[in-house]
């Protein structure tokens, strides 16, 4: 087995999850990537080995799972709807009882016209079809549109509305990490119809493919509504200045710094927080994950105390720069030392709101999770200067919020952080 894993980006992680769930017959690799004769390990950005590929003669490779993929928070990560293909098919078979199954791939927030078309398709089946509703929810956050959490909420509400409109039809929602539309070069785009078929819907339609030119034009013109309203309120010279400056003042930036042991859950909460904040506001939200920063911004640093301090200060400087321009930076390093955390606070508070969140999950719980096997190596003496084992962690005395992720769910933690951030932003 080759020693160097293939580190997957967000598209690759989506496709791996889809293949492991049975939504694809195998994992399609980007052009130029080959599986060595002794196999290939797939890892996430934190270098956690997730799956192994064996060399085959075809273009699709069936992954063998090594460790569970990291899950995040929000309705699109709810285990009740983010199902393996086999479980989705079983639910459909039980609900359909011989009736036809229609699939609807919801790759955008449903409009009224979308709902009307879906209900009409059910009526045309003539036998009270069962609807497989597939909200698309990926790891890559959409830009300039409703986020995946919002799309999932809207799609599930649309399913309820269709069920109310035609009682007895049956709606089975399944959230699928399906890369659709244009994306970065490399990873192939699977056919949504083939994925829907794997989940149990032999006939399916993609919501956005059914929209006509007039509807698309109306949706595209939504951004002009504010401009027309301003022009109606102000004389032309005033309107031009208002539109140029924007009616709203520039928002106050913010930095949320998570600190805690490896495996405490801080990265999972941080990612879920980013999705929640991006889904509910206009400000740019950026995640500065400790492991990813280590691979890029601080690749030359070691893990001695001085290097750890310098790494955290670099993260703090970037985070403060984001806050200075009105954005929100969410950082999730271990940040074991009080002095470097204090310097990050000082840099951030010079430009906006700062929130220090200590994820206080006990060491025993962190070790039990140990997705990357790091604690076991540290205990065996294979890793020097490992926080909590051979290097100290200075518990924050100035944390603005303390969360034990061993007893607090991701969604509950995100709610606590959002509430604390809002309270501090109003000071």
Explain what this protein looks like in three dimensions.
The chain has 427 residues and is α/β, with parallel strands linked by helices. It has 4 domains: 6-65; 75-211, Rossmann fold; 216-245, no CATH class; 253-425, P-loop containing nucleotide triphosphate hydrolases (Rossmann fold, 3-Layer(aba) Sandwich), CATH 3.40.50.300. It is 40% helix and 15% strand. The chain contains 15 helices and 15 strands. Strands 12-13-11-14-15 form a 5-stranded parallel beta sheet, with helices on both faces. A 4-stranded mixed beta sheet has the order 1-3-4-6, with no helix packed on it. A 4-stranded parallel beta sheet has the order 9-8-7-10, sandwiched between helices. The protein is globular.
Topology:
Blueprint: E1 6-7, H1 10-20, E2 27-28, E3 40-43, E4 49-53, E5 60-61, E6 64-65, H2 85-96, E7 101-106, H3 112-125, E8 130-135, H4 148-165, E9 171-173, H5 192-198, E10 203-206, H6 213-220, H7 224-233, H8 236-245, E11 253-259, H9 266-279, E12 285-289, H10 290-295, H11 305-324, E13 328-332, H12 338-349, E14 352-359, H13 363-369, H14 374-379, E15 401-403, H15 410-425
Helix pairs in contact: 7-8, 9-15, 11-12
Principal-axes shape call: globular
- SS-based class: alpha/beta
CATH topology call of the largest domain: Rossmann fold
CATH superfamily of the largest domain, by name, is P-loop containing nucleotide triphosphate hydrolases
């Amino acid at each position: 087995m080759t020693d160097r894993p293939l580190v997957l980006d967000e598209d690759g992680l989506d496709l791996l999850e889809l293949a492991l769930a049975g939504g694809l017959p195998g994992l399609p690799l980007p052009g130029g990537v080959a599986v060595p004769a002794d196999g290939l390990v797939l890892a996430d950005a934190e270098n956690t080995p997730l799956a192994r590929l064996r060399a085959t003669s075809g273009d699709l490779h069936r992954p063998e799972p090594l460790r569970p993929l990291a899950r995040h928070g929000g309705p699109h990560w709810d285990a009740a709807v983010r199902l393996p293909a086999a479980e989705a098919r079983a639910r459909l078979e039980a609900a359909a009882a011989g009736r036809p199954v229609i699939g609807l791939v919801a790759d955008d927030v449903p409009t009224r016209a979308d709902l009307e078309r879906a209900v009409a398709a059910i009526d045309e089946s003539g036998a009270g079809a069962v609807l497989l509703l597939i909200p698309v929810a990926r790891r890559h956050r959409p830009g300039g549109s409703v986020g995946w959490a919002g799309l999932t909420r809207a799609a599930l509400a649309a399913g309820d509305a269709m069920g109310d409109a035609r009682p007895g039809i049956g709606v089975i929602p399944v959230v699928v990490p399906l890369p659709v539309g244009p994306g970065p070069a490399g990873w192939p785009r699977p056919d949504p119809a083939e994925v829907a078929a794997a989940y149990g819907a032999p006939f399916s339609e993609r919501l956005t493919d059914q929209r006509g030119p007039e509807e698309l034009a109306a949706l595209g013109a939504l951004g002009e509504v504010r401009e027309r309203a301003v022009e109606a309120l102000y004389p032309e010279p005033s309107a031009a200045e208002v539109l140029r400056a924007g009616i709203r003042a520039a928002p106050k930036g913010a930095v949320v710094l998570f600190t805690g042991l490896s495996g405490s859950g801080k990265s999972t909460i941080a990612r879920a927080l980013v999705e929640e904040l991006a889904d509910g506001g206009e400000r740019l939200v950026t995640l500065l994950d400790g492991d990813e920063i280590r691979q890029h911004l601080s690749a030359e640093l070691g893990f001695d105390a001085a290097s750890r301090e310098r790494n955290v200060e670099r993260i703090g400087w970037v985070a403060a720069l984001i806050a200075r321009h009105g954005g929100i930076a969410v950082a999730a390093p271990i940040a074991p030392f009080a002095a470097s955390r204090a310097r990050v606070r000082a840099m951030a508070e010079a430009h906006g709101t700062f929130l220090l969140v200590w994820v206080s999950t006990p060491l025993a719980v962190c070790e039990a999770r140990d997705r990357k096997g790091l604690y076991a190596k540290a205990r065996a003496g294979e890793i020097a200067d490992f926080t909590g084992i051979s290097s100290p962690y200075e518990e924050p005395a100035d944390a603005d919020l303390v969360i034990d992720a061993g007893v607090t769910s991701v969604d509950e933690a995100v709610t606590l952080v959002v509430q604390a951030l809002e309270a501090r932003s109003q000071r």
